[in-house]
Amino acid sequence: MSGTIRVPGDKSISHRSLILSSLADGESEIRGILDAEDIRSTATVLRELGVQIPPFAQVIRIKGLGLRGLRQPRSALDCGNSGTTTRLMAGVVAAHPFSARFVGDASLSRRPMKRIAEPLTYMGAQFECEHGDGLPMTVHGVDLRSVDWDTGGSSAQVKSAILLAGLASAVEVRVTEKSLSRDHTERMLRAMGVDVENDGSQVCLRPTHRLHPFDIQVPADPSSAAFFVALASLATSGELTLTDVCLNPTRTGFFQALRRMGAKVDETREMSSGGEDIGSVRVGRAQLRGTRVTAEQVPAIIDELPLLACVAAGAGVELEIRGAAELRVKESDRISAVVQNLRAVGAEAEELPDGLRVSAGRRQLAGTIDPRGDHRIAMAFGILSAATGNRITVSDPRCVAVSYPGFWEDLRRVAA
User: Fold this and answer.
1) What's the pLDDT tens digit per position in 80-119?
2) Which fold would CATH assign to domain 11-217?
3) What is this structure's pTM?
4) Which residue numbers in the chain have pLDDT < 70?
5) Which CATH class is domain 222-415?
6) E strand or H helix at 137, and its extent?
7) Residues catalogued as catalytic
């Protein structure tokens, strides 16, 4: 395979650009926002809270309402399938003097919310979950107090919920993590004039009463780029270049893992926007070898772990992933989904309590897989299906619309 491709805008940065521009004083400009279902869910929630979010286009402008300018919603806040929308907006709503009920689809309703409810409750908000630990969930906002919170793990969504709550309440917050999770929120806040410090394990946000508007170019999503980097690594010949990719080091763990496996993946930084480094990624075929992913490496590769398992199966090499129990509470139980689907197409794989293992051995892979409505499972096996000699059918290809609506079209073009 050969050529150049620009994948869609980064999902994490697109969510945050909508939220923070809505809380700014003045008009912000966002270029290249990801037009996918999860981002539309964030836009829908913000519109219900009084923000005038225009229809998505290559360039959109948003006039912010200020840090405490959101209004009481007239109906439930429908977050669709988006955990990021739910958890980050819960942090924002917790700092406003009204109540809001969050709802979502069946998959999102099963995902745990206690992890954000605990710190935000400690800050003074009240949470009511109607069915255990998931949605529907009602948040009763108040004037929040400061907090120094240890997450006990590494979660960008938990960290961001606390930072956004402190931002909107104009109180100092500190968040300690076991290892650094993706830091898009901190980078964007600094670009908007907020005093945020990050020493690698603790983040401190100091009070501010105004958020400056900004202009931002949303870079290409490295998690989406990873699929084509994987395919190029498995190809029999050629070289592929991906442009305008976000090269934030908390997001490039997949590229590092492929290098440990022997892949030729080169990153070139070319510009910055919104506090993010942006550049190109060039990759060619390689003779891959097995590797092991440890708990310390997981935060920077969490979304790409299903893909890494498919790469190992496609290359016929051994892979072991540990310390990734978080995969069990994503859009699906991704550990179970990956292992069962790999077995369904003829690969040897086994579940571990906090990860999985793929056994070495070259074989032709064929069969039908069930992605369980999970976009990343569908795309990971889509890449495996495009690798030479495999015949794999994805039973629910449309679920990729959550993060990458044009994935199958781009895959056909690049593979051809």
Assistant:
1) 999 999 999 999 999 999 999 999 999 999 999 999 999 9
2) UDP-n-acetylglucosamine1-carboxyvinyl-transferase; Chain (3.65.10)
3) 0.95
4) 416
5) alpha beta
6) strand 137-140
7) 303
